[in-house]
Structures are given as C-alpha cells and as structure tokens.
Specification:
Two copies of one chain form a homodimer. With 354 residues, the first copy, chain A, is an alpha/beta fold. At the A-B interface, helix 4, helix 5, strand 2, helix 6 and helix 11 of A face helix 4, helix 5, strand 2, helix 6 and helix 11 of B. The first copy, chain A, binds a DNA duplex (30 and 30 nucleotides) through helix 2 and helix 4.
DNA sequence: GTTCTGAAAGAAAACGTTTTCGTGAGGGAG
DNA sequence: CTCCCTCACGAAAACGTTTTCTTTCAGAAC
C-alpha cells in the first residue's frame, strides 16, 4: 500500500524504492528489477499528494472557462486535457458561469490545491481573481486580455486575418451590402471582432452604414433578434457575418422562419467554428479560431513558465491565427444585384464598381 | 505561507491554528478571533495536499466520461462540478475518447491522486478499469451497467417511460408506420432503447417490420445514412424515432437534403435532449434524459458511500426517469394515411384501424 | 490550604514521499 | 599492502497538516 510495504518486501530501504520509481541512475540494475517486481505484484501506485508535498510541485494546472456547456469550450477542455496527460499533468477544471462568487471560489480552490499554473480561458476580463493568483506568483495564461507581467503569458488572437478572408470571400461572390451582428460590445473580444470587420470592409472600399451593424449577445436568441432587424430593413443585406457561431445559427433560424433561404437569398458566415457549425443546415461557413490550438498554446505557456528557472520580467506571448473555412452557408449574391427576393426593387444606395 | 507562519504571528502553536481553521470548539473565542485575523491578513490558505495526506481523504472525485466534446457530456460535467463545489469537493475529469489505453491511464491517475470515488459516465462498458478501482475499494458509480457489489452504485435509466410517451405521441398524431434508428447494438444502452421502442409499439398494437429498424451509430453521419435507407423504402415511414439526438439531427439533415420537410412530411423524435436539440431547425422533439439529474445522482451516490461507516454489501441504486419533450419536429401524419409525398401511391402493407 | 477536576493549549507523532547526508564495501593506484 | 576514491545503498530530515497525548492552569470541593 505504501512505499514502506514495497521496501519491506523487496528488502531494501524506502529510499531505494523511491529512487527506483524515479529512475535515479545510481540504483543497481539487478536491485531495480527486484523492486519493480514487488511494485508490480503489489499493484503499488505512489501517493501523489505526498510526492508533491515534498517536491513543492503539484503537477496540476487549473483551467478556468466561462461555462463548459457553451459549445465553444468543450474542445478546449479536451485539448488541454490531452496535452496535460501527455506531460503527466492533471487538470482542475472550473467554470465560472459568469458568477464572480464562483470565480473567486474557484481561484481559492486552486490555490489550496497548489496548482502549478492556471489558464484563464474566459472572454470577459475578470480582474478580481487575478490579484490573488498574481500575488502568489502562480504562472498564468490569459487569452487576449492578460496584462504584461512576470509569469503571466498571453495568447493574442489575430481576428483580422480570418475576418478579412470572410469579407473578401463575400465580396468575391458579388456581395456588397454586408451586415455584421456583433457580440456584446463590452466584451473586448467582441469589440475586436467588430473592428476587424469594419477594417476589412474598409480595405476593399466597402462602406457599412450603421443600420447594418447590429449588436447581438453571442447567443442564438441574440442572433434571431438581430436578424429580425436586418430583414426588416428597406434594403436587406445580401450577406451577414456574425461575431460567433451561435449568433449565426440564430440568424439562420430566423431566415428560415421568414422563408429567406440560406445561402440562395442571403449568405451567412459565423465565427469560432464550434463543432456544431458542421451539423447545422446548411453547414455553416465560418471563421475558425482553433480551440485545440488555444489549448495547446495555453498549456505550452504554462509549461514553459514552470520549467523556467530565472523569473523573466514578463511571460511569453503567442499569437493564434484565424482563418475562413468554407461550407455551404454562403453563395453568390442574388442576381438582381440587390437584397433578398421579397424586397421591393428599390435600389440600394451602395455604388458597386463591377 | 504555512501554518507555522500563522502560528508564529498569532503567538500560538500550530495545533491551535489548525483547530481554529477546522472550527474545533475547544478553542477560546478570543483566541480564535486573533488567529483568524492573522489568517486574513496573511491571506493564508491551507495546503490541501498536506491535509489529505494525514486525513486520508482527498476530497476529490473522479469523473470519467466518453468524450467531453460529445454534446451529451458537458452538461453532466457542469452539473457534477456544481454539486461538487457545494460540498467542498474537487473533481478530476477524464475523457477516455473510447481508447482503452487512455482509460486505464486515467484510472491510474485517479488512484495516484487518491480520489475518494469515481463516477463512470460512459456508455459502453469498460470492464477492465473496474478491477483496479474495485480492488482498491474505491466507491464507484456506474450508469446503467454497474455490477452489484459493495461500494458500487448504479444509476438505472428508465428508457421505456420516455420512449413509450414518444411512441404514443406519434400514434396520437395518426402515425402508424414508425421507424427506429438505433445506436450501435453492441452498446447496452442502445440495445435497451431499441427494446423499449419495440415494446412500446407492441403495447399499442403496432408492428414494426425489420426494414423499419435500422442500425445507426449515434453520430450524425449514422443518422444520415440510416435516413437514406428509410427514405428509399417503397413505403416510407411517416415518423422515425432515433436512439439519440445526433442521429435525429442527421436524419433531419438528410430529409432536408431530399426535400422531405420535417415535420410536415415526416416526424422525427430524438433521444437525450442535448442542448443543441433546441437549436436545430425545426427544434427537435425528443426524449429527455436529464443530464443534470444524472450528475446529481452520481454525486449523491459517491457522497453517501464516502460517508458510510459500515461497508454495505452493495451500493445504492438510483433510477432516472426519461420523458418526452415536445418541440417542433413532430406533426400530424400526412393526410393520405401513408408515407411522404414524393412516393408513388403504392399502398402500404400495414393495415390501419382508424 | 490542599487536592482534584476539567478546560484550554502546546508538544509531538503521524501521513507517504523525496532528498540530503552519511556509511560501508569494493576496487584502483601507488 | 595500504590508502583513498567511488559507488551503491540506508538513515533521517523535511514537506504542511491533523490528531493524540501531555501539560498547564484556574477554579471547585473538601
């Protein structure tokens, strides 16, 4: 049951057993074999708690996400776990559910378990929790919003790249009246996406008047509501890009309910590429922000920070590309060079060059 | 940083600090206050590893799921975590990804961390891992497939109840040619669902000939393939119930692609009620098997087993009801008393009584 | 005033490891 | 043959707690 039992049966000291397990080279091969044999037949597994008590390293990373039930996160959790086990790390998962009580509780739990680092993958900055961890010098990695401090790494998302691809894809399909359904604008990541959209449009000389810029909330209901607005416009957009996939799915639903067919009458593109984007009808063209990649980077950030001997003045910075993945929710703009079919032939205000 | 620091500053022994933290009543109120004050201002959090090393209880439960990215599981994870934190438990999540290597590795990890119990929420019996945990006398809870042994609890699912509701709902809508797309039949839970379907049909005097019983694999692709078969039948079913929601979503997709409209031409009902069932178009009528409830029961099973002083000969048994939730994917059977619209008016072979 | 009782606090053991330090044996160099 | 070094191993300290066992001290009983 404990190392003592193994030691007794192998007729060695517990030190030798420990050395054997940890592969310390100074133990004679023959002895090592004997010890291993006893370990096997006893089915002995070392007690990690005792181990990390003395070593000072728990081999646990914390992972804080907004909510596991949000389809964006499971892939991250899975990816993070995958790499963690490969490196003999355990992961403590926590979802804040947007509740700051829970958030601080979960931070406390992690500190009590003496995690070696924490990945905070939650859109919407939670400044409060930071203090506690920071002051304890726990390596941290944020996505998009971390401060530049020692032991704090950051994963930057290159929103523009993918969104630009989306916009240019749409433009190539002769769309010029392109709307954008944003996320809640107080979210940094949502704001960044909207800005990227605007910039991408601007780059190719397309203007977007304010009525084509509507604020959603990153849920399906938000997408539905926003799409209602858009479809009620005198000049309907022929394409709409959404700040995330759930919004896009809502938009598709509303289109369907109003008999506007995607992609023939209107093209829709999402953002995130959650798994469900493939399962929706029609499969959603969307900008991928690889969740697996985020997980990989987050782990790498923590891991290198743990290995580091001399504390660097600031953590590492990583950048994640986004890129368009084509599926079936986009198509050529409707032929009359203007809006969806049920609209009166009242010409749009946007000059087109082609 | 450690309890010693607190003791020194409060000018007491570490024993007193420990007692204060654990609320042992023999410490004088005044002293207690003094100690707490120091704890606060030091921001001291006890080291859980040291704690559980001596107490012998880790206050960690393991949770083994098939794969977090399967939309069925996140709700379970979330639910389990919710209750766990309420009870001051931590949870170690692991997904086997149907890989027995990973499975046994994860069991090992859990044993090394000395979990107080493990919930195995994975359809598809994994006999192998059981041995290891069982022999170590770790409380276990299975869903549907656990053996009746000491310290092993079981959550039984009442498949029949919900599926019967579904079948009767369909019958009430004048459907009589009802097909069933099963899951992989080597899965116990899949088999049980099919049996429940057959029984429910039988109860109301409906027969189901073999061509209306097709085997899927619990994925969307499986649903698509199965639906292809069904739609190619000389007499199409007017309704199909599926062994899980992903299958149903696949079936809906294939219907859509063939221009068969749900629910007007064909009714579809799913099983599980994963979150996405609401988001699909049209929203899926399905049999709910509450994931939150499963999580709740699993935790309760483990928790009561941990509390138990005298080992019972067998663990507890719980039963989870299933029940139909109506949404938009079912409707009256098409009027011609027979199959979907695009089919030649070649009358079916099933006598109908109404 | 002495002894006894009980409450409150401290000392120390224990939990299962890793790791430092020490020790004995074996072997090479002189 | 002796000395010394190296190598393999064991003894014991340390990690941060909880808990058992002691000790101390105040007050009650006589």
């Amino acid at each position: 049951m404990s190392i003592h039992e193994v030691a007794k049966r192998a007729k060695v000291s517990i030190a030798t057993v420990s050395r054997t397990i940890n592969g310390v080279p100074t133990v004679a091969p023959q002895l090592s074999r004997r010890v291993w044999k006893v370990i096997e037949e006893l089915g002995y597994y070392p007690n990690t708690q005792a181990r990390s008590l003395v070593s000072g390293r728990s081999r646990i990373f914390g992972l804080i996400v907004s909510e596991i039930t949000n389809p964006f996160f499971p892939e991250i959790v899975q990816g993070f776990e995958d790499i963690a086990v490969q490196h003999d790390y355990e992961v403590l998962i926590t979802s804040t559910v947007h509740d700051s009580k829970r958030m601080s509780l979960s931070v406390r739990r992690m500190i009590e378990r003496r995690v070696d680092g924490v990945a905070i993958v939650t859109f919407g900055m939670e400044e409060a929790l930071l203090e506690n961890l920071k002051s304890r010098n726990v390596p941290l990695v944020f996505i998009d919003v971390g401060p530049s401090l020692s032991r704090i790494s950051n994963i930057k998302i290159d929103y523009l790249h993918g969104i630009r691809q989306a916009v240019q894809h749409l433009a190539a399909l002769r769309h010029s009246t392109i709307a954008f359904i944003s996320g809640p604008l107080m979210l940094r990541s949502a704001l960044a996406r909207q800005r990227a959209f605007l910039q991408a449009m601007n780059e190719i000389g397309l203007t977007v008047s304010p009525e084509y810029l509507v604020e959603g909330n990153h849920t399906m209901d938000g997408g539905i509501a926003a799409m209602k607005e858009l479809l009620a416009l005198p000049v309907r957009p022929t394409a709409v890009v959404c700040s995330n996939d759930m919004t896009a799915i809502g938009a598709m639903r509303e289109s369907y309910d109003q008999g506007v067919v995607v992609p023939d009458d209107i093209s829709i593109v999402g953002f995130d590429d959650i798994r469900f984007a493939q399962f929706v009808t029609p499969p959603l063209t969307t900008v991928r922000m690889s969740q697996t990649e985020i997980a990989r980077m987050a782990f790498a950030a923590l891991f290198t920070e743990v290995q580091r001997k001399s504390p660097a003045p600031t953590g590492n910075e990583y950048t994640l590309m986004t890129s368009l993945v084509l599926r079936k929710s986009t198509a050529m703009a409707p032929n009359d060079s203007q809006s969806a079919r049920t609209v009166r032939p009242n010409r749009g205000t946007h000059a087109e060059t082609d």
